[in-house]
Amino acid sequence: MANALIIVDVQNDFCEGGSLAVTGGAGVAAGISRLLDAEPERWDHVVATKDYHVDPGAHFGDPPDYVDSWPRHCVVGTAGSEFHPELATGRVEAIFHKGEHAAAYSGFEGHAEDGECLADWLRRHDVDRVDVVGIATDHCVRATALDAAREGFRTTVLLDLTAAVAPDTLDVALRAFDGAGVTMVGEPVIRAA
To answer: What positions does the domain Isochorismatase-like occupy (predicted)?
Structure first.
């Protein structure tokens, strides 16, 4: 069996200067790149997810409520939807797009260009263990890791390589990981309360 790294939504709009920036996002991008360079044999496979909005309806709010609706972000064809330049993508074998026409938080809701979903891709590559990193710990990383565990993958979140939005939602995410049997390593980047 094999292991995989899932890089969640390390995109310009979720990093400093983006329309829905998370403090520490650029540092997470650079940290993932350093780890991939330092430990090239650690993972058999590396995949990534992207928020990839065309017209996600109520997911974009004006004004946003920051619970169910958000400022416009990661719109297909914009610089904000691209991977952050600090993220080395040379090892990424597949990209799973999510949220074209509706809210989507988990990478397991996404699909590759050929339509294959993340769970099927991982199984086709004999993956049984996944490590999850990216942005944001308390939203898309949370949803992706919980879905990975539900799909039967042994799941670890490398918290040092995630950035969280807020202390309250981070606490909810950490409790959810614990309840789902998701292993946690390290401490997430979090802005001051």
So the answer is: 4-183
What CATH number does residue 59 fall under? 3.40.50.850
Number of folded domains in the chain? Answer: 1
Residue 190 falls inside a structural domain: no
pLDDT in tens, 1-57: 999 999 999 999 999 999 999 999 999 999 999 999 999 999 999 999 999 999 999
The first and second tokens of residue 190, run together, are 């979090």
- Among 15, 50, 98, 147, which one carries the catalytic annotation? 98
The single residue of 15, 74, 140, 147 carrying the catalytic annotation is 140
Closest CA to 68 of 97, 103, 100: 103
Q: Specify if 191 maps to a domain.
A: no
The answer to whether residue 117 is catalytic is no
